[in-house]
Structures are given as C-alpha cells and as structure tokens.
Amino acid sequence: MDNAERSQFCEDVDAFLLAKKFLSGPQPPWEPGSRPNQLDARWPIEEADGARRSNLTFRYSRESPDEPSVSLVYLGKPVCRVDVKPKEDLDQNPGWVEDLGLPDDVFGSHIHLWKHNECMCVMFCR
Fold first, then answer.
1. pTM value?
2. What is the model's pLDDT at position 101?
3. Structural domain spans, the chain
4. Is residue 71 within 8 Å of residue 81, measured between CB atoms?
C-alpha cells in the first residue's frame, strides 16, 4: 500500500465509522481461531447501502477464558479493539505511543481506538 492508498484507507475508515450500519444476520458460530485453544466468531456489519466490508471479530482463548477481545475489522484490517483483562494484568505500550499522550503501561481492560491505530495504519498498512 503506497502513501496515497494508506491515506485513502484512513479516510474510508473515518467515513465508515460515521456512517449508519448494523450487525447482519444471526449471532455467528464460534470457529477455530489462528492459535490452538482459540475460538473466533465474525459478525458481518452491513452498511446502509448494503455493502459488507467489515465485521466484529470476537476472540476467546480457552487458556485465558476471562480475557476475551472484540475487534472491528474493516477490509481485513483491524481498526479498533477492546481487550478484557484482569485489573492487575499489565500490557506495555511501544515507545512511540508517548507522542499520542498514551501511558507506557496499561493495567486491566482497555481499548485500542482508531484515532490511535490510525497512525499505525499510515506507517504499517500494506
């Protein structure tokens, strides 16, 4: 993805987030995930014009049953994620998030917002 494509992707995500949309169909089934002992469920999101370019991906680990996550995936790329974690669980952010005003250490449940992920998309999307 070149810089123009990255920029367009970010604009498309911004527009998608503001647009009317709804979860399409019944609750999805759980399926084997990308790791052993992991289950994923993908619920399609339908936009007002009928397009289905995104989904909510629910992830459950049998090894950490109290730590599910939900990601918003747009055109195959995660743009936002909520991680449920015990309040004493530590996640360390990479050093560059300091420029975004985010803490070095995050304890417990937290969200990875698009406004924070967007800069990663601009740097790393391929």
1. 0.84
2. 79
3. 3-124
4. yes
